[in-house]
Amino acid sequence: MANHKGSEGTVKIGTNVLAEVKSWSLDQTGDTLEDTSMGDSARTFQSSLTSWSGSVDVFWDETDTSGQGALTIGASVAVNLYPEGAGSGDTYFSGTCLVTSIGRTASFDGMVEASFTFQGTAALTEGTV
User: Fold this and answer.
1) CA nearest 129: which of 96, 97, 81, 95?
2) Which end of the chain has fewer surrounding CB within 10 Å, N or C?
3) Regarding beta strands 76-82 and 16-17, do their DSSP bridges make them parallel or antiparallel, or are they unpaired?
4) Residue 69 class from Cβ within 10 Å (0-12 exposed, 13-18 middle, 19+ buried)?
5) Which residues pair with 8 in a beta bridge?
6) Distance between CA atoms of 32 and 26, rounded to whole angstroms?
7) Would you write out the chain's pLDDT as a tens digit for each of its 129 residues?
8) Domains of the chain by range and CATH?
9) Which residues of 80-94 are buried (b: 16+ CB within 10 A; e: fewer)?
């Protein structure tokens, strides 16, 4: 069984590597439709639409114009999330999404950080490099 360290991962916006990534998350959901009818002894359901969303946390880097700079509110971007790196044979997830929120934090004893949240606009795909 293969295990991976989080430090192996990377994020790309289109083909551009996103600078200073600390962490990322990806959530996939699937809706259900109830199709229970009279006479059934238990509720029954059918699968329906799927969706996905996620976020990425970074150390803020204003010079990363093709990565962090491309993540503006409402922007439609192609995101590629690599949990085990971007080498040949590595698994990754990709899709088009809308940037829905941006948060920035700073403290006198820490780094300036940013968090970007996104919502998928079509199906998420899983592939290998």
Assistant:
1) 81
2) N
3) unpaired
4) middle
5) none
6) 20
7) 578 888 889 999 999 999 999 999 999 999 999 999 999 999 999 999 999 999 999 999 999 999 999 999 999 999 999 999 888 999 999 999 999 999 999 999 999 999 999 999 999 999 999
8) 6-28+51-128 (2.30.110.20)
9) bbbebbeeeebebbe
